[in-house]
Amino acid sequence: MLKATTILAGALAAAVATSAAAEGELNLYSSRHYDTDERLYSDFEEATGITINRIEGKADELIARMSAEGANSPADILLTVDTSRLARAKNAGILQPVDSAILEARVPSYIQDSDNQWFGFSQRARIIFYDKNDVANPPRTYLDLADPAYKGQICIRSSSNTYNQTLLASIVTHHGAEKAAEWAKGVVANMARAPQGGDTDQMRGIVSGECEIAVGNSYYFARSIRKNVKGLSDSRDMIGWIFPSQDAEGAHMNLSGAGVAVHAPNRDNAVKFLEYLASDQAQQYFSAGNDEYPAVPGVGLAPSIAALGHFKPDDVNLSEVAKNIPEAQKIFDQAGWE
Predict the structure, then answer these.
(1) How far apart are CA 30 and CA 258, in angstroms?
(2) 140-171 in b/e burial notation, b at 16+ Cβ within 10 A?
(3) CA-CA-CA-CA torsion for 151, 152, 153, 157, nearest 10 degrees?
(4) Does the pTM of the predicted model rise above 0.85?
(5) 119: β partners
């Protein structure tokens, strides 16, 4: 007897292979800014005969645009990065529930919306990086970053950064608002400089000697393994990394995900696209093309991301984390985290 996963994988392949008869269009609103995603789109078009029309922009701008367009919006799909933005889209009323046996079987429940309005399709671990030459005892958990022993050593992004917002929201979820507030104040006290730049800039801060410890998403570092990243690849050997909280909740994971627009004019094609993103082919390309972790269990990792090693991810339900994002922003403000 075939296993259920094998049957569903076969059903997914058949759905993609035979959907060319439907053809038509798909209007995709995307805030993913990666050139490597071109392969995802072209493979879907070739397999289905469905033409993808893209509008690209920043997530908040696309959410505002879809809200303003209302029932006249041509959007079929919103594709964006991080739980906070997916939650923002849901709360704005611009997504709709999707009932798909393929998505339910392949996308783990903790990285999909509790009302099936969005699904995660790739992941990035939020890692602690450190200078191997100067830091003998690096932080082992996110909470350790607030330890006074690391005063003046930490480089981390601003409080407006969505990755940090979701990280703090997860700390609220696991440890409560009071502990999260103590943590935020402690990290501010330990900063080596005012928050600036992106995740790669935090790692470059270690290379330049501005800080000894940095926080960043895994794919920024993995990219420096796969190809040359200025100011990082040549000095990568001096940087160590920790997957935090391995004896507790596990490493926090950021998502890239998508949902079907509430007024999608091509709803069937939109659902086909979400199901395609959950296919082995697309999942492998998220990893190989952009150094991300697949969302679907059992899909192989690209060498660049596999080089970071095995770890325990936090499997907290991200729908619950999303509820604490407003509280996280309030805590950031009270802590004076720029």
Answers:
(1) 9
(2) ebbbbbbeeebeebbbbbebebbbbbbbbbbb
(3) 110
(4) yes
(5) 112, 258
Q: Which of 334, 327, 319 is nearest to 175 (CA)?
A: 327
- Following DSSP, what letter does each residue of 103-115 receive, concatenated? HHHHS-GGGB-TT
Gap between the Cα atoms of 240 and 231, Å rounded:
16
List Cα–Cα distances, 229 to 204, 211, 226, in angstroms.
10, 19, 9
Written as six digits, the tokens of 303 are 């060498």
Percentage above 70 pLDDT, the chain? 93
Rounded Cα gap, residues 80 and 60, in angstroms? 10
Residue for token pair 């990219």: 223
Assign residue 284 a region (left: φ > 0; alpha: ψ between -120 and 50; beta: otherwise): alpha
Measured between its terminal Cα atoms, the distance across the chain in Å is 57
Strand 119-131 and strand 239-242: the pairing is antiparallel
Q: How far apart are CA 41 and CA 245, in angstroms?
A: 36
CB 273 within 8 A of CB 337: no
CA proximity to 63, closest of 35, 42, 94: 94
Q: How far apart are CA 36 and CA 278, in angstroms?
A: 17
Decide if 146 contacts 236 (C-beta within 8 A).
no
68, 104 Cβ separation under 8 angstroms: no
Polymer length in residues for the chain: 338
68 burial (CB, 10 Å; 0-12 / 13-18 / 19+) is: exposed
pLDDT at 22: 45
Taking only the tens place, the pLDDT of each residue in 166-216 is: 999 999 999 999 999 999 999 999 999 999 999 999 999 999 999 999 999
What pLDDT, in 10s, does the model give residues 102-121? Answer: 999 999 999 999 999 999 99
Instruction: Name the residue among 151, 235, 153, 231 with its Cα closest to residue 199.
Output: 231
